[in-house]
Amino acid sequence: MPSQDLPSRQSWKQDLSVYLRADRGRSLAQIAGVVAPYIGVWLIAGALHPSAPVAIALGLIATVFLVRMYSLFHDLTHNSLFRSRAANLRCGYLLGFLLFTPYRWWQRQHSLHHAHTGNLDRRGPGEIYTMTLKEYEAASPLRRLGYRLYRNPLLLLLVGPSLVFLFERRFPQRGMTPKILSSVVLTNLALAAWVLGWSTLVGLETFVLIQGTTLIAGGAVAAWMLYIQHQYEDTYYETSADWSFELAALRGSSYLQLPRALAWAVGNANFHHVHHLSAKIPNYRLRAAHEHEAMFRQTPVVTIRSSLGAMRLKLWDEERGALARFPRRLESRPCVTASSATPASRSRRSHSAPGSPTGRGSSANRPRPARRPLSTRA
Q: Which residues pair with 131 in a beta bridge?
């Protein structure tokens, strides 16, 4: 979407205002519809005392409801499920206890993500960290190795999320307000009670198998969603001077095409472009906004298949304005130092369907291929 085609802020806010209404009954039904089955899985485990394979199967069933629960928890941090902030807060704390996630801590981290996504000068909390190609070329071998490990799909999807849920969210961090700190402490106390209670009821081995399955499988889905919502070839990155909130939402946040059943499981988080433009829209109105508002017709489209190709993209190439793979032979490139690296001037172009292979080394001297028109519907 070229900058000149962007709707004005007043215009899009007016167009999306019809989707902002929260339905209290529907929101309560959504929350009950994930909490009750999730607790039910644990009660079944307590009654059956299952074998290891059955416990893992129960864990996978629980994961479906836990993934959807995480999406609802995300909505609560945006105060979008209820008109009352107090109602969002109470339900947010409840789901946060079940998700091992302090409500106020995550709310703060996620608000920073919304405020700075796509801004090269403000990369940080709540996103998959992305180096530019020039930063990578100027980095030490040790830092390059660390970044390669960080972006390795197995570590990114299977190991990293479990470490985040188990450890990162357990401890106080610099800059926490008293309210955020109390959220961390209360969540830790609730987590300790959860572990002790269910370990006693179902047995330690069964508890570890079920909860371990939800952590690994659910964490992988959450990490994959976070990745593909912003990491595809023609995503959006700009320095602060040129960064645009609207472009970061409409071009730097994807529409992930999913079957209805999978869209339900992720709480309509696949309509991420709509959410980033107007975070107060409840999840059950995102599809209607996507389908009825013309501004979303040029949003980048990602499919499950193309998301696999996007996992190979690691670095932001500022000269091409696209995500690229790791360079094959860094030694053959001109030496780039931090002091000599300057932002390349370039013009933005229309989007192609994301996920196509890219980034085979530097493209500064390679002619740019013709772009395919962007498809926006399944």
A: 315
Higher pLDDT, 117 or 347: 117
Tokens for 18? 């019809």
Going by the DSSP 8-state scheme, the letter that residue 369 receives in this structure is P
Across-strand partners of 271? Answer: 255
Q: Which two tokens stand for residue 56?
A: 């893992």
Phi-psi region of 253 (alpha: psi -120 to 50; beta: other; left: phi over 0): beta
Cα separation of 309 and 335, whole Å? 29
Structure letter (DSSP) for residue 100: T
User: CA 376 to CA 360: how far, in whole Å?
Assistant: 27
What pTM, to 2 d.p., does this model score? 0.83
What does the alpha-carbon distance between residue 32 and residue 69 come to, in Å, rounded to a whole number? 10
Mean pLDDT of the chain: 86
Q: Write the DSSP assignment of 151-220 as a string of letters.
A: T-HHIIIIIHHHHHHHTGGGS--TT--HHHHHHHHHHHHHHHHHHHHHHHHH-HHHHHHHHHHIIIIIHH
Q: What is the mean pLDDT of residues 109-127?
A: 90
Contact 98, 108 (CB under 8 A): no
d(CA 163, CA 170): 10
CB atoms within 10 A of CB 218: 24
Domain boundaries, the chain: 18-296
> With contact defined as beta carbons under 8 Å apart, do 319 and 53 qualify?
no
Give residue-wise pLDDT tens across range 249-286.
Answer: 999 999 999 999 999 999 999 999 999 999 999 999 99
| CA-closest candidate to residue 254, choices 239, 232, 237, 238 | 232
Q: Are 190 and 97 in contact (CB under 8 A)?
A: yes
Tell me the C-alpha distance between 252 and 234, whole Å.
8
